[in-house]
Amino acid sequence: MKRNEKGSISSQSEKQNKDNHFVSQYKTVYQSFKERPKTMLMVSLETGILRANICRYIAEMEEKGQIQVIRKDYCPYTHFVAGFYSTNEALFTKSKVKQLDLFDNAI
Fold first, then answer.
1. How many CB atoms lie within 10 A of CB 90?
2. Helix (H, G, I), strand (E, B) or coil at 66
3. What does the mean pLDDT of the chain come to?
4. DSSP assignment letter at 86
5. 44: helix, coil or strand?
6. Is the separation of the CB atoms in 72 and 83 below 8 Å?
7. pLDDT tens digit string along 2-21?
8. Domains along the chain?
9. Any idea what DSSP says for residue 91?
10. What is the Cα–Cα distance from 16 to 93, expressed in whole angstroms?
């Protein structure tokens, strides 16, 4: 057992509960973006999950290739331009820019 920041003893089961909570949130965010393209704020208001957590989940999903910005448009809540994300692979755009290879034109 470990002492947490408040000085009380925390158990392994508390850590597992916290981890399960974040896994559950991740899945909820993934499903929400799958319904239709949305901004982070739209998902936050819909699910009650903090936007900071959603931002972290999006970064993880981007690393795995599970999410893309489908378009940039005005957010219906803030009226500012924002990225509309989706986890629906049918909406993904294929990258048209080929990454240059250092050795493509080797002599």
1. 5
2. coil
3. 83
4. E
5. helix
6. yes
7. 555 555 555 666 666 666 77
8. 13-91 (1.10.10.10)
9. G
10. 37
